[in-house]
Amino acid sequence: MSTEEKSATPRSLAEALRVRDDVSLAALLRSRPDLITPVPTDLTQLATRAGTRASVVRALERLDRFALQTAEALAVAADPAPYDELLRLMAGDPGAAADPVVTAALPRSLAVLREQALVWGADDRLRLVRTARELLSPSPQHPSPTGLGPTVREATAGMSPGRIQELLAAVGLPSTHDSVSAVSALATLFTDRPRMAELLAGLPQESREVLARLVWGPPYGQVTHDPAAHLRALLDRGLLLPTAPGTVVLPREVALHLRDGRAHRTPEPVPPPVEAAAAHRPRVVDATAAGQALAALATVEELLKEWDEGGPAVLRAGGLSVRDLKRTAVALDVTEPVAAFWVELAYGAGLIASDGEADERYAATPAYDEWRELATAERWARLAEAWLTATRTPGVVGGRDAKDRTLSALGPNLDRSAAPEVRHRVLALLAGLPEGASPTEESVLARLRWERPLRGPQREQREQREPREEDLRSRLARWTLSEAELLGVTGRGALAAPGRALIGAPEPLRPAAETGEPEGPGDKLPVHHRALPSPIPPTPAEQAAATAAAARVLAPLLPEPLDHVLLQADLTAVAPGPLERPLADLLGVLADVESKGGATVYRFTPGSVRRALDAGRTAADLHAVLARHSRTPVPQPLTYLIDDVARRHGRLRVGSASAYVRCDDDATLDEILADKRAAGLGLRRLAPTVLAAQADPSALLEGLRAIGFAPAAESAAGDVLIARADARRTPPRTPPEPVPEGPPVPDDTLLTAAIRAVRAGDLASTAPRKPGPGTGEGGGPAAGELPRTGAAETLATMQAAVLTGEALWIGYVNAEGAASQRVVAPVRVEGGFVTAYDHTADEVRTYPLHRITGVAELADDAL
User: Fold this and answer.
1) Lowest CB count within 10 Å: 17, 164, 377, 837, which one?
2) How far apart are CA 222 and CA 216, in angstroms?
3) What residues does 567 pair with on adjacent strands?
């Protein structure tokens, strides 16, 4: 048989892969990366791995709905099946009204199955890989997604020969001498449309109604020991066949006739469009998203400010307690699910982590200080990238794990490997809409379900609308839409310009009326026909470039930081926009945030002023800074407040002896001792200006402040201790690594090297050999076996090959014990080693002779 004939009619999947070019093999390995981990030794091993159950299940789960419907049709077709039969199963019999869209889309779907090595063979002999056929074929335990039952041959396998002959007589067929030909005659009748139409026309109406209930599945039904007359008419003619006592099935051939030859009730060759819910001006969308981006940065900074001096304790099992999450939600003025999102976002960006101490608590990391020094747009881009690529999923917080334990924020078991892909895909679908258009949530979910349909029982439940928990991908999509809005990736539900850059989307679609240009042919295409970003998430390098681009796009949309505030007589300051970092840090210590929004309102209180004094500021510093940064005169009440708090600040000194209070004014100490609210501190006088306390210094400081004093902490040397809000930091921490969903998609370099190695290994395993010692019958060992020769014969053959320049086939076992077979051309043999050009590796290598299991000469036309 010639090479052309072999390539036209491959006898196995391995042969079909062998005739593929490198581009086709690269597409296979890119779509099914599990096949390359580890790199197979040859194409036979690659084909074997492509047919394993785990790999096939993974490949089927990543098919779109129409490609999966095509595979399901092949599972109920003949093996092998011609293309015409597949077309009938998908579009209907030629006599019926075939769907032209299905007819046009089928070649593309078949090409996808071929590319992923789920289908092989020429168009006249299409074969679905055996494992996929087993997974998709109908059986009583696992009904087919098509709703079809077994064939007549399968359903009558246990039927007596006499009963089969009775069926032939009932439908008007002549009797035969054996059951095989009888079953074949019955199946031929059921596939003959005119004769089947006559047979069905002679049935009672009740019988036809029974068939109509079973035709689209499930094909199994229950009958009594003495069935009714209309059921008896079906059983007598073989239109229903018994499979077990009390159970009957509609044969596949009968169902296909009633369906006009279609395997599916509703083929779905075209993805459902993502529908626009509303249209907004792009400038409004971008401005809204920019405002949300600023609010997101402010929220993260407020969270970290709360945890600057040490955040909540870490649970023994890891994560935040429910009480601490509620406190965080109150502090941020958000709901608990939203608080969980912000906490997880900061954690995923590496801004917070556990401090690792004995009393383990969450705190800011050194990376937080570096992040705060970045430009505003770059800080947002870091958060957006962390969100887009993270597998940790805040939406599952509060749910239950497999052991019925509550899932806590920052705790374990929050990783969902599909999250990055779903987030990227949802944003890509939004990018396919015209600029400024926001989608309907249900249309996005419907599109995702088409792209990754549920299979088996889950799919049947969804189609029958049975109550069940929403699938994970749909929940991830809902969370993506809400989280993108919180983060400023979208504005008013539409993808904003920075979000578009974040996923590397092309230029937005704009109506011709807005651009002033004539309409092109692409402007009238429905959304599902337009070019969308790649469904494959980008590589880390591509994502880093997209993140930098998103920061550049966002920067012009953000207002310039302000260096001033508006001081008011009611002890408040209004910041009409984002403030420069030094001024924002000062106000964050000197005042409390009263309200946020387009403008931030700060309120000055005695406690906030004391906080600034504790941080090392003096009254003169505060007066000077406020006068320099206020566009309005400094109100007199604020001046009095600062002076009054500063005058009392530090008159009392609290230190650690156990704890003591020191004051130069003994009358002040008398006042403290006389105050009943200080009774709990256990104070007693040691000297006219010193009081001892039973409480520790921090509790003593808080207690004295609670009753109206302004004490300051002092060191053992008597110096005032300055309390800085940013004093607590964890050791350097790395952000949590995403948990990938299976092996990563290989890059071009790995693909090139892997294909080269596989082809070289295939050459070594398939090259024809000369018969001789160490070879099996027919000129070589059994499949998969290495050649076996003695040490002396191996050495002699190697030396002879050096002189003749011939190539040899060798078996080799490396230092780790892994066996392989190679084609080599020996160059030199000395010192127990052979130096040879390795055709498998395409380089010169040196092999120890004692690790070569045997050699064999190649046929003259092998290379």
Assistant:
1) 837
2) 16
3) 573
Alpha carbon distance 187, 519 (integer Å)? 56
**Inter-helix orientation angle 179-190/161-170, to 10°:** 30
Q: Is 26 exposed, middle or buried (0-12, 13-18, 19+ CB in 10 A)?
A: middle
User: Are the C-beta atoms of 858 and 769 separated by less than 8 Å?
Assistant: yes
Interaxial angle between packed helices 540-554 and 376-389, expressed in degrees from 0 to 180 and rounded to the nearest 10: 140
pTM listed for this prediction:
0.77
Pseudo-torsion of CA 711, 712, 716, 719, nearest 10°?
-130
C-alpha–C-alpha distance, residues 787 and 795, integer Å: 14
All structural domains of the chain with their residue ranges: 152-258, 277-463+471-510+535-556, 566-648, 653-713, 768-857
**CA 27 to the chain's CA centroid:** 21
Q: Which residues contact 261 (CB under 8 A, 6 or more apart)?
A: 88, 89, 92, 93, 96
- CA distance between the termini of the chain: 19
Q: Please check whether residue 706 is in contact with residue 716, taking contact to mean a CB–CB distance below 8 angstroms.
A: no
Distance, CA of 28 to CA of 606 (rounded, Å): 69
Biggest alpha carbon distance in the chain?
Answer: 126
Q: Can you say how many angstroms the Cα of residue 796 is from the centroid of all Cα atoms in its chain?
A: 57
Question: pLDDT digit string (tens) for 543-587?
Answer: 899 999 999 999 999 888 888 889 998 999 898 888 887 888 788
Q: Are 237 and 248 in contact (CB under 8 A)?
A: no
Q: Which residue has the tokens 């012009």?
A: 556
